[in-house]
Amino acid sequence: MAISLEKGKKVNLRKQEKVGLGEILVNLNWNSKPAKKGFLGSLFGGGSKPIDLDLGCLYELKNGRKGTVQALGNAFGSLQQEPYIALDGDDRTGAVATGEIKRVLVYTYIYEGVANWQQADAVVTIRYPGAEDLVVKMDDYQSNQIMCGLVLLENVNDETFSVEKIVQFYEGHQALDRAFHWGLRWTAG
User: Is the confidence at residue 92, as pLDDT, over 60?
Assistant: First the structure.
């Protein structure tokens, strides 16, 4: 059974005795097939490119280090050293199912295809040992922006993480960064 998060509501991840939280996995699934545009749309090339979403995150460590983990720019991160966050692959289809951190903002952006979030029908699943999955549905589609802030995870007294559904849209990485006061310096990828 999964727990569906509501926008603006926070939940705390539960720790297991003697184990802590363990590895937290975040997965994004979506519908990569664009909607059919009809006969005229196909004549003029509309809607023919599959939608490719990329998952990434902004992170801030307790030592003040900030950065991003994402496929764009090959910033895949590491689990063995700072930032202790890693992207394990770059899914192009939307179908893959598989103590130092202060906060993590998980986002997605449309890498290819039209900026139509409703067609993408994206769902984020957060898994960690011994607990029910947390599900974040992108159920707000009122945007033609290419970037969406999905979930904010924040350290709570070095004991657990709170998880909050965000689902807010932005024109790109810099706008997302500004909205959450990360303060990174961005260059074209």
Answer: no
